[in-house]
Design brief:
By secondary structure, the chain is an alpha+beta fold. The protein folds into 3 domains: 3-81, Elongation Factor Tu (Ef-tu), domain 3; 87-238, Threonyl-tRNA Synthetase, Chain A, domain 2 (2-Layer Sandwich), CATH 3.30.980.10; 268-401, Roll (Diaminopimelate Epimerase, Chain A, domain 1), CATH 3.10.310. Helices cover 38% and strands 30% of the residues. It is built from 9 helices and 21 strands. Helix 2 (83-107) packs across helix 3, helix 6 (251-287) packs across helix 7 (306-316) and helix 8 (348-356) crosses helix 9. The N and C termini lie far apart (91 Å).
């Protein structure tokens, strides 16, 4: 088996090793400081003889393989760890142990999942709910332990030693068990890389709380990630307060004031839009062709949204013997609406389905008004499908009248 230098010294940044086996651009070494992906923690990256190491993983036999950007023919290699990545992973993973221990101590919450991503770090808890007040208590507890700079010890223990330890959770694997212990606070089986004192975590900040699969998912950041997150938020705060020419403490009230003003403006826009539609609708109806004694208003209205189409159709269908088929294109594709006056024996929902089927659309509603959607289509294709549906519907209506 490859000698695991990352267990002997997690702060080791360079090492020398012999190539034991190669498969193309994949190497197995006699010793390595590269941590392989596992236990929720991504692998280390870096270089071997200057060639980038892209992936490090264990095979089914437990052997560690290094995938390089290109084949390496040398028999002896000089390895260099991407230290920024390694230390970031140690900060996040050690912080996670403290966070999970604090949730367990304060609220009896068990950690059932852990994900350490490039941007996001999360734990999943079996708690049914979690308030921000409770999360803040946990956060304060964790940072107290961090700032006390307690020793962190990671070691393999025998079965006899394991039986004497008070572990936060039972081991998930058989064989030699590696335990990571924070002095006087937490001990849990783990195969990841960790800091050697809690002070090296720097800081832990809980950033998100969400319901997840009947439990709670908590997002958090430690150390350098927490600092960069704060720097980003502080930059946003500076920009927002500068734009509004206010102080940071005035921002919540300013946002509430802008929200109220925006709601008032939206109401005014809706009022003006409705007035405009009430003026436009008679003009549309007067200009619309009469086919078999039915006024037909159809087409694609590029500048309107579905709500505007509904309002316009509601006005038009008050006119006698009127059929409306309208479309617009929004961010997610085309939106369709069909309406008819009460004196027409037509089914608006059926007409909409017939008109939009060739366009890949679908929808439903009542016999008087229906709406639907589908993928974006050219206006001319939409109008052609509408015209064909109207022609067929009015022809059938005329035949039934005879």
């Amino acid at each position: 088996m490859t000698e695991k230098l990352y267990y002997q010294d997690p702060f080791l940044r360079t090492f020398q090793a012999e190539v034991v086996e190669r498969r193309g651009n994949r190497l197995r070494l006699d010793r390595t400081a590269f941590y392989p992906t596992g236990g929720g923690q991504p692998c280390d990256t870096g270089t071997l003889n200057g060639i980038p190491v892209l992936e490090v993983e264990k095979d089914e036999a437990g052997e560690i393989w290094h995938t390089l950007a290109e084949p390496l023919e040398a028999e002896r290699v000089h390895g260099e760890i991407d230290w920024a990545r390694r230390f970031d992973h140690m900060q996040q993973h050690s912080g996670q142990h403290l966070l999970s221990a604090a949730f367990h101590r304060l609220f009896g919450g068990e950690t059932i999942g852990f994900h350490l991503g490039e941007q996001v770090v999360t734990i999943d808890l079996d708690l049914p709910r979690l308030s921000w007040e409770a999360a803040t208590r946990v956060e304060e507890e964790v940072n107290r332990i961090i700032w006390e700079d307690r020793p962190v010890e990671a070691r393999f223990v025998s079965d006899e030693q394991l039986a004497t330890l008070k572990l936060r959770r039972a081991p998930k694997v058989a064989g030699p068990i590696r335990v990571v212990a924070v002095e006087g606070y937490d001990a849990t089986p783990c195969g990841g890389t960790h800091v050697i004192r809690t002070g090296q975590i720097g800081l832990l900040k809980i950033t998100t709380i969400e319901r997840y699969k009947g439990g709670v998912r908590v997002g958090f950041l430690c150390g350098g990630r927490a600092l960069r997150h704060y720097r980003h938020l502080h930059g946003l705060m500076r920009e927002a307060t500068a734009a509004l020419t206010i102080g940071a403490d005035e921002l919540p009230a300013a946002v509430e004031r802008l929200r109220d003003e925006n709601r008032a403006l939206q109401r005014e826009v809706r009022r003006l839009r409705l007035e405009g539609l009430e003026r436009e609708a008679p003009r549309l109806w007067d200009a619309a062709p009469a086919i078999g004694g039915v006024k037909v208003i159809l087409g694609h209205r590029a500048d309107d949204d579905l709500d505007t189409l509904r309002r316009l159709a509601a006005i038009l269908r008050q006119k006698p013997r009127t059929l409306v088929l309208l479309a617009t294109t929004e961010a997610k594709g085309c939106r369709y609406l069909c309406a008819r006056s009460d004196d027409l024996p037509l089914d608006a929902a059926a007409l909409l389905r017939e008109a939009t089927a060739p366009l890949g659309g679908r929808g439903g509603g009542s016999r008087e008004m229906a709406q639907g959607g589908g993928p974006a289509r050219p206006p001319e294709q939409i109008e052609a499908a509408f015209e064909e549906t109207v022609r067929h519907a009015l022809q059938t209506l005329s035949e039934e009248a005879e």
